[in-house]
TrEMBL record:
PROSITE patterns: GATASE_TYPE_1 (PS51273). It catalyses: chorismate + L-glutamine = 4-amino-4-deoxychorismate + L-glutamate. PANTHER family: AMINOBENZOATE/ANTHRANILATE SYNTHASE, AMINODEOXYCHORISMATE SYNTHASE. This is aminodeoxychorismate synthase. Gene3D superfamilies: 3.40.50.880, Anthranilate synthase (3.60.120.10). GO terms for molecular function: 4-amino-4-deoxychorismate synthase activity. Its EC number is 2.6.1.85. Residues 24-224 form the Glutamine amidotransferase domain. Residues 462-753 form the Chorismate-utilising enzyme C-terminal domain. Keywords: Folate biosynthesis, Glutamine amidotransferase, Transferase. It holds the Pfam family Chorismate_bind. The keyword Transferase applies. In the C-terminal section; belongs to the anthranilate synthase component I family.
Amino acid sequence: MHSEDPLVPERQTTGNVTVPRILFIDAYDSFSNNIIALLQDHLNASVTSIHIDDPAYQTDDHFHRLLDCFDAVVAGPGPGTVTNSQDVGLIARLWTVPERHRLPVLGICLGFQSLALAFGAREEKLREPRHGIITRVLHQAESVFGGLGAVHATQYHSLTVRLQSSPEMPAPYWSPTPECPDLVPLAWDCDCQSNGPVLMAVKHASRPFWGVQYHPESICTSSEGAAIIGNWWAETCAWNARAKRAFDMQDIDVKEMCELLNLPQNDTVVLESGVNKSGNPVRAETGSHSIIGCPPDTGHNRRLEYHLSDQTMDIWEGDRFQWSGTSVHSDIWSFLQGFTESCRCTDGPAEMPFWGGLVGYVSYEAGLATIDVATANPDPSKDQPDICFTFIMRSVVIDHARRRVCVQSIMEDDGAWVTKTSTLLQQNASIISAAAKQHLIPPVPPSLDIPSALPTIDTAPSYESKVRSCQSSIRAGDSYEMCLTYQNHLRLPITTSSPSTPWLLYTRLRRLNPAPFGAFMRLGHPDRAVNIVSSSPERFLSWTRAGRCQYRPIKGTVKKAAGVTRTMAETILNSSKERAENLMIVDLVRHDLHAVVGTGNVRVTKLMGVEEYETVWQLVSVIEGDLTGRSVDDTDMVPPSGIPLLRSSLPPGSMTGAPKKRSCELLQSVERHVPRGVYSGVLGYLDVGGGGDFAVVIRTAFKWDGDVEEVEVEGGGGETTTTRRYETWRVGAGGAVTGLSEPKAEYEEMRAKLESTMRVFGES
């Protein structure tokens, strides 16, 4: 788990055992350190202590974020009375946090009394205060007293709590009273006649709250009295396993999880950070989390589609049309910003980058529209959206670096689904673990008749001619760099494909070419959905909820091959030609970022570093900025939306060249106005918490359902022709062209990038 709060501990493991994380709320008591030591000794716990009046956690938002980082809370003893809010502070708020932030709590002395008063008890003074008094505690070996014998406990209190108006011990002693129906008595002290029966322990009837009046940490409390700590932790673990959304899992296979959840299906999104054979992220600084979008009970999420051809914006739920509006292009971005702000959440788990929100793609052509570059009019009959997002309300998020799974929902009263899904995944942990350890590359789907597939790959002379055309424009002063691409087509006979084929192809790609930004998407009307199978190494743009943004452009590629070492790759990538390609994009990105965040808020934190991936070495730079225009640690201000920055940065500079607008206009002609579509665009998410993360759509195959081509095939011996129907998968590839480029080398680079994706179809 990662948190920007320095108080919050990192998740630790000892062997295969996860160290418990416990928050201790200190009410300025002189015995607090003894309680912390007891927790550490008995539970091997990592304990973080804060005071009841800690100013950092006075707002609900900050307090809830803090709770989300722990497994349980201990509310400690202290002076004063629970009727004085200054004496209990944060402890009193533990009992009323929303369900999705609720944690198991053990209240001790003052914490116990706060629990009791929160659910109907009264506070009163003891006739004889009990300070340093050791008494026998009566119990029935239930709940936290399970399996315990005689308990002798040390008391330090002048006040007590009553569960009913009469001072007499309630009968039956161990049942809730009408005044406090939610509190179940667990233990009593009946040693002092003048005080009468004094309640020593209680639990909440339905919530994970327990409390003891005595001090289990005292040197004179018997070992049986201290043993309640272990029993409380067992109760805590059981409750967390049943109801809490987050849990640890040592070996995690995203594919297996998806299939256990009956994915994929329509409006399916999986954003996956690739992992290596040890289960660690292939590049943790860019991709350590995976996101599985889960459908509501209706089976369909809401979906937003935008079409450049007629500038219409439609909202669907599955195949059910809900709303349509006509708008100029800029309004789609205003709509996205307004939509995300209307759904804004502030109380999700801070360590998870995604709580729910819009997930989808923006095509290259939609990006061109933001810089007023005209494109060929698309065929309106194909009805393919240029921007498409689905609104994910239920999700499973995996933190691969810390082996933690979070099941979450932003739907109202959806706790039953969270519990059901958490239980399903935990019950099948052994299956998920076994799949994660196999590291097998799934075979080509048997239904996929590769020999009959018809790839249409640009020839070397044709592509090299386009490279020279780009160089002519560069020498004429119209551009510094042009990112040339080619849209390669692979036609597959319809009879050999099935609805599961895209998913099977994705499961191959994620093993053949694991990358920080893997993605499987099936979005749209069931008859014309887009199927995206992606394994991109390149982050386009991300921004945190606090307003820190980052670009990671990639320019410069060396294919891995026999005899090619990292040293050799570094030599090639440090050539003036490769560095020039990267440098121009870095300066272009700095330009885009300065336009939004202003002077003094842009930093280049990595300049032309060599990074290794499964099939290539690449030259990568990192540019960062602050959307707030000031320190992102200023928690008193709400950071502005990252959507204006996203819009102003499209299309990705690493797929256009510089200057961007003129280069894109020239590329339209060189590429013969063939739409790039999803390829060269971006895909990712807009989180309801305010963050966002988008990858450049490269190393990707995609196809549209319903985009079918019919071909007349002659029968043998001149017999009558038959009609065969094909679906078309598109795989784009290309590279940056500069004045230093060699046309032949550019063609070879394009083919190397192409082959890293085409292998998924069995091509090599």
